[in-house]
Amino acid sequence: MRVAILGSGQVGQALAAGWTAHGHDVVIGTRQAAVEDFAVAPPAEAVRDADLVVLAVRGTAAVELVRSLAGELDGRVLVDATNPLDMGDRGPALFVGTTDSLGEQVQRAAPAARVVKAYNTVGNALMVDPDLPGGPPTMFLAGDDPDAKRQVGDLLQATGWDVADLGGIEASRWLEAMCMAWVAYGARTGTWGHAFKLLR
Ligand SMILES: NC(=O)c1ccc[n+]([C@@H]2O[C@H](COP(=O)([O-])OP(=O)(O)OC[C@H]3O[C@@H](n4cnc5c(N)ncnc54)[C@H](OP(=O)(O)O)[C@@H]3O)[C@@H](O)[C@H]2O)c1
């Protein structure tokens, strides 16, 4: 599968390395001229022939970037891994929530893209092939397009994840809040190797 990852930060590089090891053809869409070890291209060029696009930029930059690429994203599966983090003086908080979400804002910015919220509830080190004593953790998904969610779910299952679909893109409100629970546990314990698991 040809994958374009928007953002060359920790998440972009972790996904690029992990999926390349699984045999996927990955390019990072970035403002940077080069990123060691990875193929890069300007964002509009990177997404052009992609089977799957991942949004992995800072939350405050997500909507503007997606809006600038909207035509290129028409019909494409767009995995939104971002969180609307506001790094204020009193610790991280969400800059949108409860009655709206960054996932919904991203979908509105590119109405013809098939947005799937995923990968935002776990640290980048566990995103591909998580190996935890409690077995495969659960990745929660949200999105309006069942086929897009199936495609992302297949990728997740092939890379070590159990999958739980929470429904339409508006469920991003709860996935983005879950990020805060993940961060709060890490900050309290000083450990960052945890992930959620849905028992059923
Ligand atoms: N770190 C984690 O473990 C983790 C886990 C789950 C979700 N997330 C979420 O995933 C996203 C990326 O996190 P990260 O840790 O990879 O962040 P990071 O290492 O700080 O990298 C930030 C990325 O944002 C991009 N960016 C910053 N300002 C931009 C702008 N004005 N326009 C376009 N792109 C801009 C940069 O893209 P360039 O390549 O163009 O420089 C860079 O790749 C965030 O929304 C974060 O909340 C992070």
From TrEMBL:
Domain Pyrroline-5-carboxylate reductase catalytic N-terminal, residue spans: 2-84
GO molecular function: oxidoreductase activity
InterPro entries: NAD(P)-bd_dom_sf, P5C_Rdtase_cat_N, STEAP_metalloreductase
Family matches, as Gene3D superfamilies: NAD(P)-binding Rossmann-like Domain
SUPFAM superfamilies tied to this protein: NAD(P)-binding Rossmann-fold domains
Oxidoreductase among keywords: yes
Keyword set includes rRNA-binding: no
Keyword tags: Oxidoreductase
Classification via PANTHER family: DUDULIN-RELATED, REDUCTASE
Protein name (record): Pyrroline-5-carboxylate reductase catalytic N-terminal domain-containing protein
Organism whose genome encodes this protein: Geodermatophilus africanus
